[in-house]
Amino acid sequence: MGCLGIFGLLVVLIIAVAACGGDGGDETAGGGGGGGGQQDQQAQQDQGQRNEGQQGQGQEQQSQEQQGPELYLVGETAKVGNVEWTLTDAYYTQQLKSNFGTQKRGNFVVVDFTFTNNRDEEVTLDPELHLTLKDGTGREFGTDPDAFEFVPTRLNIFLEPVNPGISQDGRVVYEVPADAEGFTLTVDDAELMEDKSARYELGNLRPGTFNFNSASPAATATATATARQ
Fold this sequence. Notes:
Structural class: alpha+beta
Helix content: 25-40%
CATH class of the largest domain: Mainly Beta
Number of helices: 3
């Protein structure tokens, strides 16, 4: 074989080696691309799981918010923050009577309760702020401003300080329309900067006999039985 033949053979070998090297580079590049794709898929899957977890937490929180305050019945004690409320009586009446012989006719919801202050400082209650009566349609009722003479002094605790560790009995009277029913009473923690509350399910209160000095046991039994229906 002459010099030209040997030279030609070397050229052919160089071309062949170059071609093989190029193919290997493509495979490496392709392999790298495949690895990157798998990493992207894994990252997307992880992100999807995180999003599902956050969505589940958000739905759980929303469900808790929709449920609202915890429900109680007449006769039960609701602990709200550092205070306690016990509804001892709740009934409907069309006539209020005082110890002075005066009367008032209409449609009234009478609520007797015991309030306990477990805070480290005194608490001053306001019925418009701390006891909210609503009916089944969402109408909200304020207390009757003319009913003070039908509330004994010992039960008229509003705007009077209740010291720490003290329990006080109270009464509140609401005037309502004749078609109102499905009542609930929301009580709160008596804190200005907090928003904790509990709700008493009163239901459709049946008539009870108004007693100036104390709650009517018959009315309490009726109210509790009605609330459980």
